[in-house]
Amino acid sequence: MSLSPDDILNLFRDCGAVLQGHFRLSSGKHSDTYFEKFQVLQHPHYVQQLCGELAKRFRRDSVEVVVGPTTGGVIIAYEVARQLGTRAVYAEREGDRRVLRRGFTLHEGERVLVVDDILTTGGSVREVLEMLEPYRVQVVGVGVLVDRAGGLVDLGVRTEALLQLLVQAWEPQACPLCLRNEPITEPGSRFLQTKPTP
């Protein structure tokens, strides 16, 4: 049975993965809403369901390799690849770019699907797409669990999101929460940290 966007949003909410507050996102932008995907990804049966939905969307594209950025993208890439019957590789950060390590390689002409967890500005996915260019692979598309940019991010390839929302995010200098001196949280760090606003 397919999951509707409402089903997926309710799944995230039921797992406590939709947080409200004042957050500094990995993109550097600020938002009053944060999707803590690891509250969902800790449950293998939810990962199987969600990645099954992504795999369905690309099942006819003859995907040969699924690539995901670390960290959340590793889990998603593995499970989507498992369901498509192919392999998964992971793009790790090295300075300001992504690279393949651990002996991973890609071959010219291979059909590649890029997956990630949450799309805000598309920064991580763009890093992966740039990393793929020298390999001369065929990128069949990008699949994400949640597109919080409401479909406004153009990655230059077909992009499929299981859930598409337009969630407000501001540049730090334009953040109304900063103007109200609300404490800010950086949820992407190892431990949640609350810091005074700049």
Give the gist of this structure:
With 198 residues, the protein is α/β, with parallel strands linked by helices.
Describe the structure.
This protein has 198 residues and is an alpha/beta fold. The protein has one domain (5-195): Rossmann fold, CATH 3.40.50.2020. Helix content is 28%, strand content 31%. The chain contains 6 helices and 11 strands. It has helices at residues 5-14, 38-41, 44-57, 72-84, 123-132, 176-179, and strands at residues 18-24, 30-35, 65-69, 87-94, 97-100, 111-119, 138-147, 159-164, 169-170, 184-185, 194-195. The strands form 3 sheets. A 6-stranded mixed sheet has the order 5-4-3-6-7-8, with helices on both faces. Strand 1 and strand 2 (30-35) form a beta hairpin. The longest helix has 14 residues, at 44-57. 34% of the residues are buried. The model is unreliable at 189-198 (pLDDT under 50).
Structural class designation: alpha/beta
Q: If classified by CATH, what would the architecture be?
A: 3-Layer(aba) Sandwich
For the terminal residues, how far apart are their CA atoms? Answer: 47 Å
Total of DSSP H or I helical runs spanning 4+ residues: 6
